[in-house]
Amino acid sequence: MTIKKSKIYSINISKTKGTPKTATETAKLIENLGLEQDAHAQGGIKQVSLLSIESIRKQNNCPKIKKGTVLKPGDFAENITTEGIDLTTLKIGGKLTIGKDVILEISKIGKECHKYCAIYYKTGDCIMPREGIFAKVIKGGIIKRNDIIKVEKI
To answer: Which residue from 28, 48, 100, 130 lies 20 to 30 Å from 148 (Cα-Cα)?
Structure first.
């Protein structure tokens, strides 16, 4: 049963780990791997990372943020920036359908940071460990900016 809809705000990829990702209009998700041509496409439980634009906007309003700093989609190394959904309410095992074909399964909530990242040094905090999620690609396909995301109830 579908309980809520949202959309893709941005799709982000990078060729190397540890760098901000660059926005792209379309991308291919590969089953059991991740986003084609992304450095993090290596299988496992963290195949695709997601963060909401609402979380990025909240981070930009952090009182400790350095003057002139504006964080944007991809700066947190997330593959998919969503809009219109509170990702923190999703549960492991929940499913997301993107467009007509792609199916993701929520596999991890949050991210462990082993050292302070560039975001932390700019803002005094990083929202990704609390509000970012990871998913496995159950059914691959092409996704594009503004595709509808359906959250399936588990």
So the answer is: 130
CATH among 2.30.42.10, 2.40.33.20, 2.60.40.4070, 2.40.50.140 for 2-152: 2.40.33.20
Query: What pTM does this model have?
Result: 0.90
Q: What are the tens digits of pLDDT across the range 97-109?
A: 999 899 999 999 9
Closest to 70 measured CA to CA, from 49, 50, 53: 53
Answer whether 35's CB lies under 8 Å from 41's CB.
Answer: yes
- Only one residue has tokens 């302070």, namely 116
pLDDT reading at 124 higher than 90: no
Distance CA 102, CA 119 (A): 30
Supply the pLDDT for residue 5: 64
